Amino acid sequence: ATVSGTTLSLTGWGIVRIKAYQDGDGSWNPAPNVYQDLTVNLAAPTITSFTPASGILSTDVTITGTNFYGVSEVSFGGTPANFFTVNSSTQITARIALGSTGNIAVIAAGGTATSATSFSYIAPPTITSFTPVSAIAGVSVVITGAHLSGSTAVSFGGTAVTSFTVDSDSQITAVIASGASGNLSVTNPAGTATQAGFTFVVAPLTQATALVFSSTTSTQSDIGWTSGNGSNRVVFVLAGSSGNAVPVNSTTYTANADFGSGTQIGSTGWFCVYNGTGNTLTINGLSPGTTYRAQVFEYDGRTGIEQYLTTSATDNPNNVTMLNSIPAVNTDAVSAIGGTSATGNGSLTILGGVNATARGFIIYPYTGTNKVMGEAGVTNFSESGVFGDGSFSSSFTGLTLNTRYNVRAYGSNADGAGYGSRVDFYTLANVPSAPTVNNAAETTMDVAVNVNGSPATTEFCINETGTGKYLQAGGTLGDNAVWQTATVWGTKTITGLSVNTLYTFQVKARNGANVVTADSNTASITTL
């Protein structure tokens, strides 16, 4: 304490007794002593700032504020500092211990000060799991753990990821770069956490070889091979004898041993028939006499990140031709052709020792194309039984006059139907009825054709039997036959005839193949 004049100045805090007195002299008694106890209270401390705002174990933090007197404790998020130094009433330096994120508190003689903002304690990261545990470049891996905020680096097998995002203090999502298998590592300013077990997926190095076919029938074959060093393998089959399949990485192919039912590689015709870890399969649904090409590929990687070894190898790919047990068939010329009927003729040759169980003919109005059983417009004349090599015939009925047809002979068994080549024929036209002859004059008369059911495309010629001449298009009689449809002939007036002479007429018809019918009955009339 100091006194200046009548002013008393005090420093410190606590209870202070102030005592005043004066001495007496010889003429009067001294005054009694006077004293007073005062309590001096310090102002409460405050925290105005601190730096740095975050830190790891043993980081020194400078705290700035006021009234840092009699400081007894400094804490971070409730955890006391390792130690601290009061540099002045306005500054403290504290070294953080293992702690937690939260406000800074300073306990001083004047009270407790708390920071307005939180200090971030950076603890070393920990990893509890990650998924997926295998991946290729570009795949995202989710890492779960603790104290992941503030992470500065993530790597797999020693290779830094392409990018990563800290989703929360307990999760990171990282995108794999081209790398290697090994440990997952996560680093923050407080340290590095590692966890083993990551596999960077690449294609195998050794391809399957020695693909062979066995127990081959007309529709089925067993396939075997010597496996390479992949964890899995996939088999594709093509109806053909050349070319290679090229499976696409990160594509899952669904297998089906019934050819054509599994996943196809694009529109290449290569169908997946096997996807697994073995080295044999039986493929079905093949066509007799057809050549197929099979190819095996080794691959590694789970569903969706498959990495295929796409090279070929010894006897991989390889071909097989299915046995042909479908009968070979010839179609012979049609015989006994009439107006509404005909006879089909053909022959059968058995292949693979398998008899036919049905044979016959299909017939349909002419198209100039090869049709098969069941198609529109096709009529089937067939018989069932057990048939070996040899010729056979069948009668066609219910045909249409003067109509062109296609015919194919066939033979079938459980493996399918074999067809002969296509032949065609015309049915005959009907023999015309006797013509109509009337309106006779001295040198003219009329004549008309009676078609007797033949279609409008049928052509006719008209013959005068007495002279042996033929009616011409212009209405005269001439030496050469003239063929016209009944519509074109119409009712034709014949000119240039002789007076009072008997004339007798008959008509012939012909079909589209120019096959001529017999003569019709005659009709006669005499000119005037």
Helix-strand layout with pairing:
Blueprint: E1 2-4, E2 7-9, E3 14-20, E4 34-40, E5 46-51, E6 54-55, E7 60-66, E8 73-76, E9 79-80, E10 83-88, E11 91-95, E12 102-108, E13 111-121, E14 126-131, E15 134-135, E16 140-146, E17 153-156, E18 159-160, E19 163-168, E20 171-175, E21 182-188, E22 191-200, E23 209-214, E24 221-226, E25 232-238, E26 271-276, E27 280-283, E28 291-300, E29 307-308, E30 318-321, E31 328-335, E32 342-349, E33 356-365, E34 379-387, E35 390-396, E36 404-413, E37 416-419, E38 423-426, E39 433-438, E40 445-450, E41 459-464, E42 469-471, E43 477-478, E44 484-485, H1 486-489, E45 491-494, E46 502-510, E47 523-526
Parallel strand pairs: 6-13, 15-22
Antiparallel strand pairs: 1-2, 3-4, 5-7, 7-11, 8-9, 8-12, 10-11, 12-13, 14-16, 16-20, 17-18, 17-21, 19-20, 21-22, 23-24, 24-27, 25-26, 25-28, 28-29, 28-30, 31-32, 32-35, 33-34, 33-36, 36-37, 36-38, 39-40, 40-45, 41-42, 41-44, 41-46, 42-43, 46-47
Question: What's this entry about, in short?
Answer:
With 528 residues, the chain is an all-beta fold.
